[in-house]
Write a structure and sequence with these properties.
The chain is mostly beta strands. It has 2 helices and 21 strands. The strands form 6 sheets. A 5-stranded mixed sheet has the order 5-15-14-9-12, with no helix packed on it. A 4-stranded antiparallel sheet has the order 1-16-20-19, with no helix packed on it.
């Protein structure tokens, strides 16, 4: 009796996407036109207001937006975004920009942005496309702080998530902080800004992970033997295993579902 465990592992193997790369990209594409929330401070109200764009950006993997292209291995975004690595969908379309009609901020205050909510697998990074290049986790990604100061300059984070068909939603808020002491100015917050994304799959076939039991015997075994199983070695009720043998690593084998490890197997010669 020869009992062995067989695990068909088809897990995290990254597919060879394309054998020929048409270009090595030196920057992270925007993935479409800008979709900019316009931030303004209202002195008469003592708070921020934000006008959200109508568009809903698509998180798009590089395999879809730039088929055959890749990122340079030395760039900080290579591990997260390149198809040969994590291959996340991404977008830089959303950002923050100050409305030209904004009122001046009160003396002794500064602007901050914080993330209020969002799924953990929607990652956010500060992006720097020119030397020194950067892809810095922000807004809770990889344990980073949920809030950061903002100087009012146009700011386009990279939003990234596993490629797929599920959409994503995250909320943010702009608010004032006292420069001396760092206390939040009560009532200054804009309220929740909702960033919504659709998400495109990258076309990779889905992989499966299975655990099974394989009972096998030598390929040169004589004919006239059958495989039987029972719940006890001493059982008088051995049952024929009706599964048709297949070849696994050059040996006739019967592949059984999980649970078969609780049974005993033997070969019996037919009369």
């Amino acid at each position: 009796m020869n009992l062995s465990r067989f695990c068909r592992v088809a897990a995290i193997a990254v597919l060879s996407v394309l054998s020929v790369r048409s270009a090595t990209l030196t920057q992270v594409p925007m993935q479409g036109g800008m979709a900019m929330p316009m931030v303004s401070y209202r002195a008469d109200e003592g708070r921020f207001r934000v006008m959200m764009p109508m568009e809903i950006p698509e998180l798009t993997p590089l395999m879809v937006s730039h088929p055959g292209d890749s990122f340079g291995a030395a760039d900080p975004w290579f591990d997260a975004l390149d198809p040969s690595r994590r291959g996340l969908s991404f977008s830089r379309r959303y950002g923050f920009v100050m409305d030209v009609g904004t009122d001046p901020l009160p003396d002794g205050t500064s602007m901050w942005i914080r993330k209020l909510s969002g799924p953990h697998d929607l990652e956010v990074y500060r992006y720097g496309g020119t030397a020194p290049t950067a892809l810095e986790p922000i807004f809770g990604t990889a344990g980073s702080p949920m809030a950061r100061a903002w100087n009012g300059m146009m700011f386009h984070p990279v939003f990234a998530a596993p490629a797929g068909t599920n959409g994503y939603e995250a909320t943010f808020e702009v608010y004032l902080v006292e420069s001396a002491g760092g206390a939040e100015v009560a009532g200054s917050g804009s309220g929740a800004l909702t960033f919504r994304f659709t998400n495109l799959p990258d076309g990779r076939p889905e992989l499966g992970l299975y655990t099974a039991i394989v009972v096998d015997w030598p390929a040169d075994s004589p004919e006239g033997w059958v495989l039987e199983s029972a719940t006890e070695v001493s059982s008088s009720n051995w049952v024929l295993v009706a599964d048709t043998p297949v070849m696994v690593r050059g040996r006739p084998s019967v592949v059984l579902e999980a649970g078969a490890e609780n049974r005993f197997f033997r070969m019996r010669r037919l009369p």
